[in-house]
Design goal:
Layout (H helix, E strand, L loop, with lengths): L5 E7 L4 E9 L2 E8 L19 E8 L2 E9 L3 E9 L2 E8 L10 E10 L2 E11 L1 E9 L2 E8 L14 E6 L4 E7 L4 E9 L2 E8 L4 E6 L4 E7 L4 E9 L2 E8 L4 E6 L4 E7 L4 E9 L2 E8 L1 E4 L2 E4 L2 E7 L4 E8 L3 E9 L2 E8 L11 E6 L2
Antiparallel strand pairs: 1-30, 2-3, 3-4, 4-5, 6-7, 7-8, 8-9, 10-11, 11-12, 12-13, 14-15, 15-16, 16-17, 18-19, 19-20, 20-21, 22-23, 23-26, 24-25, 26-27, 28-29, 29-30
């Protein structure tokens, strides 16, 4: 009998968890979790209900386990992104809304800097239904991209609604470029063969592969489909590969031929929300976490996610594991052990109070 790749180690108390970030500072491993909402006692269950005026808990690893060590205010939390510029450390947070119903989708996204032993507000951004940040660099230039927006009747944008890319000017982030798309979800960046590529995932207007032309990002390829959630890149024997998760359809493996991404394989059906590529001790793996199927008015919470093993040209299913409306996954190595942290956001009966999980990864 084959040994399991994932071994559950610890449940993390979370509510409506949407994303996490992990980092190491001064020899200590930390974890932050963006949470969208908590349940309101006595109210009907609904995946877009609840109390969004909550916080993002912070955890510190002690003896192989995470213990809570504080929190950052983050209403309607969708993302927290950790990054460095030189010796400086930052956390970028994004929330989709505030309130307990009715909700306001015109909010403030915040970038914090670690100063004098605390996370201190560096910069605030007026945002609309903010989803995810992505930090990346090209040479000595540092960028921070924000995916945002929704197209729902009765929700009006009072703040800028386009997804956008900011550039670091030495002390703060200034607007560099906007991208067409009304319901942005995520960005991913890679460099390959001397070129730089950025993907933008959008739920309603199709997703894009963008290429850096030395001045700005220009469209290289569009994916005319609804339901885009995220992309991940990896290289194998000089070839660039890309995986795209689509909540409404399937997850797709593409091979980049130098000009376009060509479809190679479809992985699983609808429900995939986030991806994590892991370069393990025994090979390369892809973790696909699954959120919901159906429609927001009648969602079906996905209760299982997958680990795929790379075979050199395709992926094969290696393992499934129990999740509950899973929304993100992140891997890291600490003291020689590889871990996988997975956020769960919804129970089968559409309640937010679901623990997230920490696993040991033996792949």
């Amino acid at each position: 009998m084959n040994e399991r790749i994932l071994t559950p180690l610890q449940s993390l108390p979370t509510t409506g968890a949407r994303a996490l970030a992990s980092w190491q500072a001064d020899g200590t491993r930390y974890l932050a979790v963006a949470q969208m909402a908590r349940d309101i006692p006595g109210t009907p269950a609904h995946m877009n209900g609840g109390d969004s005026d909550i916080e993002a808990p912070l955890f510190r690893m002690e003896d192989g386990r995470f213990v809570e060590c504080g929190a950052l205010p983050l209403a309607g939390g969708e993302d927290v992104e950790y990054f460095r510029i030189g010796a400086r450390q930052f956390l970028a947070t994004a929330g989709i809304r505030t309130g307990r119903g009715p909700y306001d989708y015109n909010t403030q996204a915040v970038v914090y800097e670690w100063r004098d032993g605390a996370w201190t507000v560096l910069q605030r951004f007026a945002v609309f239904a903010a989803k995810q940040w992505r930090a990346f660099s090209i040479g000595e230039r540092y960028f921070l991209a924000l995916a945002q927006g929704v197209t729902v009747e009765g929700i009006d944008a009072l703040h800028p609604r386009q997804s956008c890319i900011y550039e670091w000017d030495g002390e703060r982030f200034v607007l560099f470029q906007t991208v067409e798309g009304r319901w942005g979800y995520d960005w991913n960046f890679t460099s390959h063969d001397g070129a730089h590529y950025l993907t933008y995932a959008d739920h309603v207007d199709g997703s894009q592969l963008l290429r850096w032309d030395g001045v700005r990002f220009v469209s290289q390829q569009t994916f005319d489909e609804k339901g885009g959630r995220t992309f991940r890149f990896f290289e194998d024997r000089g070839t660039l590969w890309m995986v795209h998760a689509n909540l409404l359809a399937h997850t797709t493996l593409y091979r980049f031929d130098g000009a376009r991404c060509v479809e190679v394989q479809r992985l699983g059906g609808a429900g995939g929300r986030e991806l994590c590529v892991i370069e393990g001790a025994r090979g390369r793996y892809l973790v696909r976490v699954c959120f919901i199927t159906g429609i927001p008015q009648a969602p079906v919470v996905e209760r299982e996610s997958q680990v795929f093993r790379w075979t050199g040209g395709t992926f094969e299913l290696a393992e499934t594991f129990s999740t509950s409306g899973a929304t993100s996954a992140e891997t890291f190595v600490e003291a020689g052990t590889r871990y996988l942290a997975v956020t769960n956001s919804l129970s089968a009966d559409l309640r937010f109070g679901v623990d997230s999980m920490l696993y040991r990864f033996d792949g």
